[in-house]
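yo, Vitamin B12-dependent ribonucleotide reductase is done. seq:
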Amino acid sequence: MAGDGITAGRQRSRTNTSGGGGAAAGGLRVERVWTTAGVHPYDEVEWERRDVVMTNWRDGSINFEQRGVEFPGFWSVNAANIVTTKYFRGAVGTPERETSLRQLIDRVVQTYRKAGEEHGYFATPADAEVFDHELTWMLLHQVFSFNSPVWFNVGTKSPQQVSACFILSVDDSMDSILEWYKEEGLIFKGGSGSGVNLSRIRSSKELLSSGGTASGPVSFMRGADASAGTIKSGGATRRAAKMVILDVDHPDIEEFVSTKAREEDKIRALRDAGFDMDLGGADIVSVQYQNANNSVRVSDEFMTAYENGTEFGLRGRLNGEVIETIDAKKLFRDIAQAAWECADPGLQYDDTINDWHTNPETGRITASNPCSEYMSLDDSSCNLASLNLMKFLTADGGFEVEKFVKSVEFIITAMDISICFADFPTEKIGITTRAYRQLGIGYANLGALLMASGLPYDSDGGRSVAAAITSLMTGTAYRRSAELAGVVGAYDGYARNADAHQRVMRKHAAANDEVRAQGPVATEILREATRQWKNGNKIGEKNGWRNAQASVLAPTGTIGLMMDCDTTGIEPDLALVKFKKLVGGGSMQIVNQTVPRALRSLGYPEEQVEAIVEHIGEHGNVVDAPGLKPEHYAVFDCAMGDRSIAPIGHVRMMAAVQPFISGAISKTVNMPESATVEEIEEIHYQGWKLGLKALAIYRDNCKVGQPLSAGKTAKAAAPAAVEEKAVEKVVEKVVEYRPIRKRLPKKRPSETVSFSVGGAEGYLTASSYPDDGLGEVFLKMSKQGSTLAGVMDAFSVAISIGLQYGVPLETYVSKFTNMRFEPAGMTDDPDVRMASSVMDYIFRRLALDFLPYDTRAELGIFTAKERTAQAQAEAAAEAAAADLAVTNMAESAPAATPVTPTVTVAEVKASAVPEKPAGSSTELLELVTGHAADAPLCFTCGTKMRRAGSCYVCEGCGSTSGCS
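structure:
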C-alpha cells in the first residue's frame, strides 16, 4: 500500500515538472508531507526560555552567556547550547542578536524561498509557501540540517557562503603556489576547509629552468601548513582543516609518506620533555605539517604491482618519463608503517574514483576536501546537508519510505536553490560550482538506526539496510535533479559530459540491483530505490540532470549534535553509556536511549530491559547482562569499549554503501593499539579490492606518549595484584653482600634484546642464575675491534663481575639511569620511550626485567601497562573520594535540579560515575572502561572531544577539527 501511494505521488510530481519540456515555464508543484494546511509549524510546538551559560570544564571560567533564548521543549540542552553559541548571529547583548530558534530558521528558509521564487523554481506562490513550511518543519523537528556555513552566513550581511567543502588546484609555478596559499587562507577565514593535489609540482629530483634543483612539493607544504596554523579557521573557532594529496607515481612520494611520522617523533620527544604538544597547545606550532590530513592517491597500476611484487615507476612531472623505479610492496608497507605510527597518510583509490566520475570530459578528479567525502573537479565546492535517519524509524521497527523520499526532494531542491545566490571565496571556484552545481546530501544516525532495529552494525542484515537507504537517498536525489533540469535547466557542463553522466547513473542502478535485501524493511526500501533509479534515469535521459553530483557521507560533527543524533555520519555508536547535560545545570550518565529500544525490538520484556540497562550503566557493556542472549551481544557492539567492532567490519560497511554515493565517505577505520603494520596493510589492500574511494585508519593511542609518574604516586596507586606479586618476589629473593663471587652455571637462562637509542643500534644480552637473579650482562655496539666495541666489552665484564660479587642491581640502576650523553633520544622500546643515553636505556631495561615492582617504584621505573594502571587507579581514587557527595546530590536532585522528561529511573540508577571527572561521552567512556582515549581536548572549552568521521567534535560547545 505504501509503495502504491509513493508511486502515485511520484507520478503526479513528474507530470508537473518534466512533461513535454513545457514544465520549465510551470515550475514545481509542492505537496505537503510533514505540515498541516492552515497551521504554521511554529504553532504546533511548545516553546520555552532557557539560559545558555557555557563554562570551561577545566577551570569553571565562563566562555559564553546568553539568557532567555527560545527553543522547543523537546530540544536537548546540548543542542540548544550549540545552536545559541555557534549559529545565532549578532553581538551578544545588542538588539541585533538572535534570541530564538525561530529567527535562525526564518533567516535561512526565507532566503531560500525568495531565491527559489526569483529563479523560477515554483509553479505558484502557494507552492513556495508549502516549500517554506515543510523546510521549516523539518529543521524545527531535527529531521535534517544544512551544513554549518549555511547557518553562519545565509540571510546575514556577510558573504552568502553555503559550502563547507572546497577543492583547489596548484600548478608547477611559483605564481600558482603563492595563489594556493592565498586561496587556502581565504577559505579558512570563512570557516571551511579545502583539499589540494600537489602532484603537478615537479619533484626535488628534477631541474629548474635556471639549472638548479627544484624544491619539491613537500617543501612547499611547510609554508601552507604555517599559514593554516596562523589563520586558524572561522576566526579561531576551530583549526584550519585541509587535505594534501600526492600521486603514488610522484618521485617525492617516499618523502611525502614519512613526513608526518617524522614530525610525530618530534612531538613525542618534546612532550616527554615537558612541552605542551596537545591539539591547540602552546608548543605544537614548533612542529610542521600538523594542520593537514595527508593522503596518497594510488592507481590500479600500482596496486597490481603490489599484488605481483614487481617494480613501479616514478614519473617526472616535466615530461612524464620514468626517472626512478621502486619496489611496490616496500612502498605500500612504508605507507602502512607511517599510518601505524601517526595515522597518516590515508589512501585514495584514483581509478575507482574516476570510474564513477560524471564529468571526465571536463577533467579528472585529482583531490578531495579535508575529510575525503567530497571528490570532484579542481577549483570547485560542495554544500552539504544531512538527514537524521532515526526520524524515519517507526515504533514497530519499520522505515517511513514515503516521507524519506519526499524529504530528500525538499532538501535537494533547497540545496540547488542555494547555488543561485551563494558567494564563493574565489572566482574560479564560483565559476566551476555554478557550472556543475555539486551537492552533497547525506545522513547521520545510521549506527543508532541499526541498533534500534536489532541489527548488528557488522552484519549482512545491517549492511543490507544501510545500502538500501543510501541507494534510495541518492536515487531520489538524482531523480529530483533530473526533474529540476526540466524546470530550470541542466547544469552547464552536462552537454559535453552527457554520455559519461548517463553511464555513471546506469552503474548506480546496476549496483542497486546487486544488493540482497535481508528482511522486510530492507526489501521495502530497496524496492522503492529500484523504482527511483529507473524513473530518474528515464527522466534524466530526456532532461539531463541539474547537478553533477548529489550525495556524500560527511562526518556531521556539529550539525549531528544540533539534531541530537546519537551517532554521526555512517559511524556506529561510540559506546553504550552517554554523557547528558540537564536543564538548569549539571549532568549525568545515562544508558543510550537506543539500547532499550533495541532490546524491545528483540522481544525482551520490560523487566529484563530494565535489568540489562542497569547492568550496562554499571559495567559499560552487555557482557554477562542478566537475561541477554549471547547471540544478541553483537547488536550492541560499538566503536570503542570491551566489545568493539573489528576494523574489517567498518570497511565492509563502507563498501556496502559506496556504490550509492556520488562522492565518498568520511570515516576513519579504528584499529586497536595492538594492531600490527601488516594488519593495516591488509586493511588498505581490502579497501581497494572492495571498491572504496578513500580509506583512512586510526590506531588507538598512536599519537599519545605515556607520561612518567613519580615513584611515590606509583607505589600508592599500584594495583593489588601487582603489589602482591612484588611482595612475593621480595620475600623469595635473598641478596648476599659478601665479597664472594657466585659464578653462573655453565648452562644458564639468558635473553637478548635489540635496541635503538637516538638512531644508534645495539644488543643487550642478560644471563641470570637459576633462581632468577641477574648475573651477567653483555653489550654489543659498533663493529668488532672498534674502540667503542672494546669499551662496551670491558664495561660488560666489570658489571658482570660486580653482580656476581653481590652488588645489587638496584645500585647500578640508581647510578647509571639519567646519565646524559649522546646518542640520546627516542628508542624503539614501548616501555622506555625516551633515553638520555645508552646507559640510561640499558639499566632501565634491566630494572624492568629483573627488579621487583616495589624497588622499581622507588626508582620511578615502570612498564607501559603499569603506567596505564596507575592512571586508572588514580581516577578510581578520585571517584571514591567524590562518591559520598555525588550520592547526596543524586538523592536531592528531584527537588533541587530540574530533570528533562526523557531521563528515566533506570537511567538515574545507572549513573554510577561521578559528575566531576567527566565532561563528555569520551571522558565518561574512559572512566567506565578504564582505557584512555587519545582524543584531543577542545581548544575552546577544554572538554575532551570525540571522533566524527576523520575529524573530532566537541560535545560541550560544538567545535570541530574538520570542515563540516
